[in-house]
Amino acid sequence: MSNNELTVIINTFRSDEKIFSCIESIDQNVKIIVVENSNNSEFKNKLQNKYNNVDCYLANENLGYAKGNNLGLSKVKTNYALILNPDTVLKKDAIKNFFLNVQNSLNFAIIGPAVQEKKKELILSKKSEKNLIEVEYVKGFAMFLNLSQFEKIGYFDENFFIYLEEIDLCKRLKKNGKKIFLDRNIIIDHLGASSHDKAIDYQMNLSRNWHWMWSTFYFKKKYKGYFIALFEVLPKLASSIVKFLFYSLFNNKKRKKIYFQRFSGLINSISGKQSWYRPKL
Predict the structure, then answer these.
(1) What does the buried/exposed string (b/e) look like for 99-124 if buried means 16 or more CB atoms within 10 Å of the residue's CB?
(2) Residues near 49 by Cβ (< 8 Å), separated by ≥ 6?
(3) Residue 186: CA count within 13 A, CB half-sphere
(4) Domain residues for 214?
(5) What digits encode the pLDDT tens for the residues 133-157?
(6) How many domains does the chain fold into?
């Protein structure tokens, strides 16, 4: 197996400060597809002029994680794909060690790196000496996909904008008898919640709070039904109202806005509305 069998997909949104470290940690012989969720032609030209192995596609709108990665996957012509967040860095031999699994004829749909959090805590039993651990899901910041195993299942549910779409995909795979692994020999560092430029932190925080609540109810409804999902999110709904009123009383406008976003995200999801909110930039 060679690097020509793999395509890397990086879904970006105002990630100019982060993506170069990510790209430079990837072997230059590996094809990279960047899906930029804007019409930023300057960003596209900068990437393609600097890196011969990068193709950048402008979405001309903010598609989010699920739809953006699906767009990237639609461009892939190799047998395997690696989905990366722009705030990740591959450690030495990460791709080589992935291909060792392929060469050993491992039956897998997804392989994730062993390090799943920025604090480098393993979602693995510390007593286990196995390099490969079968798991129920992996985090979405770094996922090696065996594309032949997705033909009947499809990729990400595009109703999600961000949050829980990778867990949803893993659940669908497991339901269809597919296998998901973590590999201790694959190390990919992830900064976490920092894929975008710092200048838009607050607006992105508002967006995260809205979408986390929207996705939470949608995910629960998808797998447990409407009424159980509603029952389970009622404490979150009540909490958002109480905290909104609390921060209104003390005239803390930023915190007040965050809890309004949480309330709004939940109400929109409960009402069956699409995941429509986008950062105001």
Answers:
(1) bebbeeeeebbbbbbbbbeeeeeebb
(2) none
(3) 24
(4) 198-270
(5) 999 999 999 999 999 999 999 999 9
(6) 2
Entry pTM: 0.91
Same domain membership, residue 82 and residue 56: yes
Listing DSSP states for 164-230 in one string gives: SHHHHHHHHHHHTT--EEEETT--EEE--S-SS-GGGHHHHHHHHHHHHHHHHHHHHHHHH-HHHHH
What is d(CA 247, CA 253) in angstroms, rounded to the nearest whole number?
A: 7
| Alpha-carbon separation of residue 115 from 51, 86, 91, 186, 219 (angstroms) | 28, 16, 11, 8, 25
Is residue 15 included in any domain, yes or no?
Answer: yes
Structure-token pair, residue 198? 């710092």
Q: What is the pLDDT of residues 80-90, one digit of tens each?
A: 999 999 999 99
Which residues have a Cβ under 8 Å from the Cβ of 73 and sit 6 or more positions away? 9, 81, 145, 147, 155
Contact 93, 164 (CB under 8 A): no
- CA-CA distance, 117 to 192, in Å (whole number)? 8
Give alpha helix (H) positions in the chain: 19-24, 41-50, 64-74, 94-103, 165-175, 201-224, 226-249, 253-270
